Amino acid sequence: MEFKEIKSLYRQSLKSMDTEEHIDLFFYRPLGFAWAWLFAKLGVTPNVVTIASIFLGVGGGILLYFAEPANLWLNYVGIFLIIWANTYDSADGQLARLTKQYSRIGRILDGVSGDFWFIAIYFALVFREINFGDKLLGADFFADHQWVIWVLAVTAGACHAKQAAMADYYRQFHLYFLKGKEGSELDSTEALDKEYADLTWSGNFMKKLTMMVYRNYTANQEVLTPNMQRLRKALKERYGENEIPQAFRDAFRAKSLPLMKYTNMLSFNTRIIAMFISVIIQMPWLYFAFELVVLNAMMAYMIISHEHRCKSLIAQV
Fold first, then answer.
1. What is the maximum alpha-carbon separation in the chain?
2. Is the pLDDT of residue 139 over 70?
3. What is the distance between the alpha carbons of residues 50 and 55, in angstroms, rounded to a whole number?
4. Residues 135, 66: contact at Cβ < 8 Å?
5. Rounded-to-integer distance, Cα 275 and Cα 67, Å
6. What is the dihedral of CA 203, 204, 205, 206, to 10 degrees?
7. pLDDT tens string 170-226
8. Tens digits of per-residue pLDDT, 58-100?
9. How many helices (H) and strands (E) does the chain have?
10. How far is the CA of 158 from the CAs of 1, 100, 207, 238, 307, in angstroms?
11. DSSP-assigned states of every residue in 28-42
């Protein structure tokens, strides 16, 4: 196969240049494409790759617990495993796009894979602070006040879930206008409720359970985006599902594109860099503070800005 063909396939494996982050384009996407190419040759499915990423990410997260000088090398192994897991997280989507193996189960599995990594990471950092914080910082605050680090971790984890969900939602909405319904994974609770009602617990237990979880996930995204929902409703009533004029699509893209950098920062790279730094400087609690202060402020700005843009576009429908 010639280089031009490989380059073309690589571009097909990307969601869009609008929604890709620089670190991903220069590091994770090329590695993910190499993995996807290999897995396609071996007949490995995207869901299997996603499951493999869960084991790698969880294993890497556990290794961040060790803080004694003799075991610090384990932290670097953990960081390596988490990076490896993220190359698989990139590869599963690229493999799905290359082989057209799309499924709602795959989307859900891909969405929760990172949650498993970070659950392991959060527990590791909490117990690290409780058991080693006094040795590292010359103080035993978290050992004597364990509830503080637990509150920090649980609150940061809840915020993390919301940040990642909203970042994914805005990215899919942007892709919907850029590529249409076929190029996006944007859903609505209205459509999902109809699918859910058509399923029976007795004959489709797992599918109905999956649909229930996914429906609630989508509903939680929609509740924070009232103007977006009004815009979607207005567009559907006037143009149907996928007949939005190109001029309107271009107008939306111009308003949405500046916010795409925030969806990327709230997804993985920015937060994982902050986490690695907090581990290396032996102050893991700073990572929780970063999520609570910096990333929450970023999410609030993203939501407010996007809602304002959607409100201005409703008048043009």
1. 66
2. no
3. 9
4. no
5. 14
6. 150
7. 999 998 888 877 768 788 898 889 988 888 888 888 888 888 888 898 999 999 999
8. 999 999 999 888 888 999 999 999 999 999 999 998 898 888 8
9. 16, 0
10. 46, 33, 26, 38, 22
11. IHHHHHHHHHHHHHH
Q: How far apart are CA 301 and CA 229, in angstroms?
A: 18
Plot region of 138 (φ>0 → left; ψ -120 to 50 → alpha; else → beta): left
Contact predicate 251/178, CB 8 Å: no
Size of the chain in residues: 317
Start-to-end C-alpha separation, the chain: 47
Give this prediction's pTM: 0.86
Residue tagged 């000088």 (tokens): 69
Q: Please provide residue 39's backbone torsions phi and psi, each rounded to the nearest 5 degrees.
A: -65, -35
Looking at residue 138, what is its pLDDT? 44
3-class DSSP state of 201: coil
CA dihedral 263, 207, 223, 151 (to 10 degrees): -70
User: Three-state SS for 11?
Assistant: helix
Two tokens at 240? 């149907």
Burial environment of residue 87 by CB neighbours within 10 A (0 to 12, 13 to 18, 19 or more): buried
Q: Which amino acid is at 236?
A: K
Q: What is the DSSP annotation of 151-191?
A: HHHHHHHHHHHHHHHHHHHHHHHHHHHHH-GGG-----HHH
Tell me the C-alpha to C-alpha distance, in Å, between residue 150 and each of 97, 143, 199, 259, 285.
Answer: 40, 11, 40, 32, 10
CA distance 239 to 18: 24
Sign, Cα dihedral of 272, 87, 260, 170 = negative
